[in-house]
Amino acid sequence: MPDTLVNAAERKATATDTFDAIVIGAGIAGLYQLYRLREMGLSVRVFETGSGVGGTWYWNRYPGARFDSESYTYGYAFSEELLKEWNWSEHFSSQPENLRYLDHVADRFDLRRDIQFNSRVIAADWNEAALRWHVTLDSGESFAARFLITCVGPLSAYTMPRIPGVEDFKGQSFHTYKWPHEKVNFAGKRVAVIGTGATGVQVIQTIAPECGSLTVFQRTPNWCTPLHNRPITDEEQVKIKANYPAMFELLRRTPGCYIHDTDPRGTFEVSEQEREAFWEKLYSEPGFGIWMANFRDVLTEPKANALFSEFVARKIRQRVKDPATAEMLIPKCHGFGTRRVPQETRFYEAFNLPHVKLVDTRETPIERITETGIKTSDADYDFDMIIYATGFDAITGAFDRIEFRGVGGERLRDHWADGPKTYLGLMSAGFPNMLTIVGPHNASTRCNIPRCIEQNVEWVSDLMRYAKARGIARLETTKEAEADWSRHIEELAAGMLYTQVDSWATGINSNVEGKTVRRILQYQGGAPQYRAKCAEVADGGYVGMVLR
Ligand SMILES: Cc1cc2nc3c(=O)[nH]c(=O)nc-3n(C[C@H](O)[C@H](O)[C@H](O)COP(=O)(O)OP(=O)(O)OC[C@H]3O[C@@H](n4cnc5c(N)ncnc54)[C@H](O)[C@@H]3O)c2cc1C
């Protein structure tokens, strides 16, 4: 190894605290990044807040947590042996199985020995003289590394609602992300769920039959469509494995790396009968096809979007017996697919159960949490348990929770104060040697995430290899490249209906101070185009970056 990376002698002298690379987070991204860097012979330490690997699937243990990507499209693609030996049991497998899979990956590739658990990174400071990052943990320990790679997760900074009295409640209460590891019993209990996003939907439909009573507090209804999950038969298992090469090839071509690809037809280019039949078919099929494989203009043309939204509204009216409840469950302020589409299994039917009640918090706002329950503007509800399905400070939240200080002590939070500024969504000017896997502005959060994570990690690993081979100790993007990329991101999003809607994808979160201005946080050009851009940068000798 050249002495441009932390050299062997130095590593020996400070073996416990200096590494070639520090990785923050041991989810899908962190595990794979560790695997790749170690393969290159670099010394790596991963710091992880949790006590185990798995990220999303370590934390979100709430009842009903499961994939909305087809399981076999979500697993890692990098190891043929892993693909061969792992059998997914369901088309959309649940959290316990997903976590078992990631535990298996960690064991199979002997990853745990380089991961320090129960270790939250609170700060990272760039030292220009030493060309190193100094990383501080919540324990007070500190470590140094030439490269810092963040794998902190797009949905890992959970948010509690800003409602007074949260601390006063005397019953059981849980945020879905911080779900206990022990089994929670709902039988006979009076349960409240606050939130009806993708997580709320999964919880509600799962626990509704068990609870004594269930009251759902909804601020914004979502357009939910059927998941149609089922077990994978032995015969299907064989076919899935035989088809892996062709499937991954397909995933490389589709914009979101799903098995679902946009239908090239426009909504109004077909007859009414043909349109209805197509939409009925999509509604009866599993997964995100209804969102990703719909007519090409459903997410861009207001008229097409309104017509399809009306189709889904009809379905909701058919499935929910009480017309007033059905109307409350139909979104009125945003069209289908402009916010993340929760996939459901008998979610709407849950509201037909006599002990399930829906409260519209726009009509009757929650005023406070009390010792015994929830007080709205028109009623006092008593509960044994409150479940906060109130989501995340998405995409940038986990970054904001770490004090990153780059060149001259500039804080990343300040650099991104008016919205993220990045190059390829993988780095920012003024923060040398820091790479951001699944960062803002990259394609991953519009993606079947592991597919984009693999691309991000492989690109970064190639960059590390390039640096190692050429004795490069410092790499940074230029302000110009950063400005160009940030402008490109804005241009790609123009015309997308989702940009006109408040949601986590546009950076709005009323539970987080200052997250009130819509931002373009995602790359909208599709994963194939993003991949091509990244390849172009690398093939050109890392254009837009200064390497020395
Ligand atoms: C309930 C749920 C279901 C989902 N289902 C799907 C799906 O079906 N398909 C899909 O494509 N995506 C899905 N997602 C998105 C999901 O986040 C990604 O699939 C994927 O898990 C992201 O992997 P990651 O490694 O980037 O982040 P994560 O899995 O979130 O891992 C990040 C890790 O970083 C750690 N960390 C963060 N900050 C620090 C710090 N300061 N110090 C130390 N450690 C830190 C966290 O503890 C966490 O373990 C889902 C998300 C949720 C919440």
Structure, explained:
It is a single chain. This protein is of the alpha/beta class and 548 residues long. The chain is 33% helix and 16% strand. The chain has 19 helices and 20 strands. The protein has helices at residues 8-13, 28-39, 56-59, 71-74, 80-85, 95-108, 198-207, 234-242, 244-253, 272-284, 289-292, 302-319, 323-329, 347-350, 397-400, 412-415, 449-470, 479-493, 527-539; strands spanning 18-24, 44-47, 115-116, 121-127, 132-137, 142-150, 172-175, 190-194, 213-218, 225-226, 343-344, 356-360, 366-369, 373-376, 380-382, 385-388, 403-405, 434-436, 475-477, 545-547. The strands form 5 sheets. Strands 1, 2, 3, 4, 5, 6, 17 and 18 form an 8-stranded mixed beta sheet that branches. Strands 7-16-8-9-12 form a 5-stranded parallel beta sheet, with helices on one face. The protein binds flavin-adenine dinucleotide (FAD). Flavin-adenine dinucleotide binds at residues 24-30, 47-50, 55-56, 58, 60, 65, 67-69, 74, 120-121, 151-156, 199, 398, 401-402, 438, 448-449, 453. Flavin-adenine dinucleotide (FAD) binds at residues 24-30, 47-50, 55-56, 58, 60, 65, 67-69, 74, 120-121, 151-156, 199, 398, 401-402, 438, 448-449, 453.
